[in-house]
Write the structure tokens for this entry.
Amino acid sequence: MSKYFNEIKNNMNKDFLFVLDEAREFAGIPFVINSAYRSPEHPLSIKNPSSSHIKGLAVDIKATDSITRFKIVKALIEVGFTRIG
């Protein structure tokens, strides 16, 4: 069970959500998720059939300013994420 991301828990990798929770805790700010799991039939999945979103191993996090973006990226790196785009 995710501490912060219960709204996206369906079809998401449990280990991924655990580490995402750690990043959220480290950042100390809410993470607003724009996109999480995408079915293989989703238009973006069709364009990129090897997307980690299909595997429940990716989320898109909203950042409206550079300070928020910095805190999010720093937290993701701190807990071990290596694919940040």
User: Anything to note?
Assistant: Strands lie at 32-35, 60-62.
